[in-house]
Amino acid sequence: MSAPWHVAPSGPLVGELAVNGDKSVSHRALLIGALTDGPVEVEGWGDSADTRATLEAVRALGVRVDDHGHGRLTVHGVGLGGLKPPVGAIDVRNAGTLMRLLSGICAMQPAGAFTLDGDASIRTRPMERVAQPLRAMGAEVETTEGRPPVTVTAGRPLAGIEHVLPVASAQVKSAILLAGLRATGPTTVVEPQATRDHTERMLRAAGARVTGSGGRVTLEPAERLRLDRIEVPGDISSAAFLIVAATLIPESRIFLRGIGMGAGRTGILDVLERMGGRVAVFNRRTTDAGEPVADLEVAHAELTASSIRGDEVPALVDELPILALAACCARGKTRVRDAGELRVKESDRLESVRDALWRIGGHIEVEDDGWFIRGVPVRLRGGTVDPHGDHRVAMLGAIAGLYSEEGVTITDPGAIDVSFPGFRALIEAATAVRR
Ligand code: S3P
User: For the whole model, what pTM was predicted?
Assistant: First the structure.
């Protein structure tokens, strides 16, 4: 348990702020990089506890990764079927993306037994949603009553399938597509709502045949993957905390450069625009590995409530905690629906976010698959937030502290390292000069 962090009320945030490399793309740079023939240069890699778990996992599977520091890595890919079975279990720690994607990758290896395990939170997360489609392809996958630890016995011949996902999930889609790389015949995944497409973009950039988008994607088996360079965009899920902070605190104006604008990730910008937020998007471009990026300028704005439901949920699923804070400080009532997936994230986020905001003066209730929030457009009172071991709830507490009357104490801020280890230093530097 880390020492508590008290975040005092803050004046405006002004100037350029830098966020870490995108977590989803950073995991994939290592996992897909490991499957290529030859070295891949990675730039802007987001160093965090989660992505370190992936770095260590691929090393444990016999892949050399040179860490040059400052987000630069060289991943010496071993080819599609070149991973070595590890000695003992792979420890994914808190990283659900690693757990799911690696299950698909292990299933298509030519031989060996791969056991994947992690921390107490990972051991509560559903794995049958990955195991079932992999078994339908011919893989041998054993879960522990539907959860980790998971053991994949490789070497079974795989056949491509058409799988209709019951719940929208980029992690499950990616696991199936990655297994399909060495299956016979095409693999198709149909999603109820389109989710982030980083796996498809990176595989395409590496020469795989991936067609379709926005809800139905098909991958043909591949002979080999080649990729020279992966530039990892800034993480919009980390930027979201700063975007909401600058929106809430009067006279703020911040710039965020090179932020990932991938399909399935920018829902927060659409919702904030509806609420009256002022986020300008400019300098749009696409990286070598096919990821759209842009620069953002965010200015303070008065917010009005706007409900969130249905198809737009997957594109902002990780931003719902910080959007709940925005809704608490907006004028009017917000209903968030169709967000039952929040119950199986790093914590039960429907409960942990309600607990955090309620303790510091927010008017928020949990409903079946979402929240009901009565917004009041003033600073929250403040108080103490228990992040329940969840990085996004801890960062939500910190941003609430900046926009509070009395400040917020986060009881265990160490959880933040899971995605954004530089967050605290950034917040302290951005507020120190201006208070
Ligand atoms: C992720 C997909 C999402 C997201 C997670 C990262 C990914 O999870 O919540 O933080 O990198 O594919 P689900 O696929 O479970 O929705």
Answer: 0.98
